[in-house]
Amino acid sequence: MDIFKCKYLKHEKEEIMGFCLNQKCQNETQYCYKCLNATHSEHFNDCVRFTEIMEIMNESMLVYNQFEIQLKELSKTTKEFI
Fold it and tell me: Does residue 47 contact residue 20 with C-beta atoms inside 8 Å?
């Protein structure tokens, strides 16, 4: 994954670490280390790092794949029954 840089002028050399998911937050959703401390400190728990997002995506894909296998098996069983 390419490295994304912060949009704030004083932080432009900082890597983006993740996204703020707080719906009431008026700041940029993507954050760097400096943003996390300065603008998202009141809702720190709503800030999700890229690594966590990737883990959630991978887990979701596993669940989806398992569901797809079960659906195919159910379809096959249904066709055999009919």
Answer: yes
- Under DSSP, is residue 40 helix (H, G, I), strand (E, B) or coil? coil
Name which of 51, 52, 4 is nearest 28 in CA terms. Answer: 4
Q: What is the pLDDT of residue 1?
A: 47
What's the one-letter identity of residue 46?
D
What pairs with residue 49 in β-bridges? 18
pLDDT along the chain (82 residues), means of 10: 77 90 91 89 91 94 97 92 82
The answer as to whether 3 is a domain residue is: no
For the chain, how many structural domains are there in total?
1
Range of the domain at 25: 9-81
